[in-house]
Design goal:
Pyruvate Kinase, Chain: A, domain 1; 2 domains; five-stranded mixed β-sheet; 5 strands
Length: 295
């Protein structure tokens, strides 16, 4: 059983830890609001662009002039996975849920005899996935809030460059979609080809106007040559923003739980300290009484 000094040191240590976790919770809460507003502001533009590209993909599926970047390369049996995690930890199961989703995706691809490659966006996912699929992880980029869209453009250019080199035929991105401060949904979105697989019935009814034959002016190839790369960058940027908001929410929840657990541990340690102290005092009283009786 630990002595009083050891218990006192442990109580002080846990109290210091509780102050740190409480401060981290407050910092995450302050960052969450701004990250949430940014992610929600980007959704309408990115979602509408994704729906337009999906409608184009459906309408031009049988067209000989349709670009590969829109429909993918069906003869290339290699799939590229973009995994979006965070650069920092202490956010519960936020990053591990993405790693698990990537592992499940890899199992599905291997079952269909499809090869895969991985681009990691965020250091935490890279640290784990590099150990699991060393040869298949071809690139890693750390995330910075200040240059979020610049990073998205850089990754988008790399994705297009490798696609043009025929390194893969399709591409999807896996990320945590922000739902609330305590809830993030692991989502997968197809980037090449441009498809929307989880569209609701209401969205389909509202977007029936997109399922039409498009007339291009000035030129179909010229418009798509500019629109397709931009769509890839926008979808990557949206995923980074959604993941950033989800990270702050997950960290706030994790630090809140850690603060509560620290408080419960302090209560238990205080109880042990008081019991130990009482036992020592009782033992000393017994010794005094026994000595007095002996005299």
């Amino acid at each position: 059983m630990p002595n009083l000094k050891e218990l006192k040191n442990k109580i002080d240590s846990v109290r210091s830890t509780r102050k740190i976790t409480q401060a981290m919770k407050m910092v995450a809460a302050s960052k969450l609001r701004r990250a949430q507003d940014t992610a929600e502001a980007a959704r309408p533009y990115s979602d509408k662009m994704a729906k337009i590209m999906s409608s184009l993909s459906n309408s031009m599926a049988d067209s000989e002039s349709s670009p590969d970047l829109l429909l993918g390369k069906k003869d290339n049996k290699t799939h590229l996975i973009l995994a979006v995690t965070s650069d920092r930890g202490l956010c519960g199961g936020f990053n591990s849920s993405i790693v698990k989703a990537v592992k499940n995706k890899v199992l599905e691809l291997e079952k269909d005899n499809i090869k895969f490659k991985i681009i990691c966006i965020g250091r935490k996912g890279f640290d784990v996935l590099k150990g699991l699929y060393e040869e298949n992880v071809i690139m890693n980029s750390n995330i910075s809030v200040k240059n979020g869209y610049e990073l998205s453009e850089q990754i988008g250019k790399e994705v297009i460059l490798r696609f043009e080199k025929d390194e893969y035929g399709s591409c999807s991105i896996i990320y945590n979609k922000f739902k609330s401060a305590i809830s993030q949904i692991v989502s997968e979105q197809s980037i090449i080809p441009c498809l929307i697989s989880d569209e609701s019935e209401d969205d389909k009814e509202n977007d029936n106007s997109l399922g039409i034959n498009f007339e291009f002016e000035p030129d179909e190839s010229e418009i798509l040559a500019d629109l397709l790369p931009k769509n890839i960058s926008v979808q990557i940027y949206k995923a980074i923003l959604e993941s950033g908001a989800g990270e702050q929410g997950a960290r706030m929840a994790a630090m809140d739980n850690a603060t509560r657990n620290a408080g419960e541990m302090i209560d238990k340690l205080n109880l042990s300290y008081n019991r130990q102290r009482q036992a020592i005092i009782t033992g000393e009283l017994i010794e005094i009484i026994a000595g007095a009786e002996a005299l």
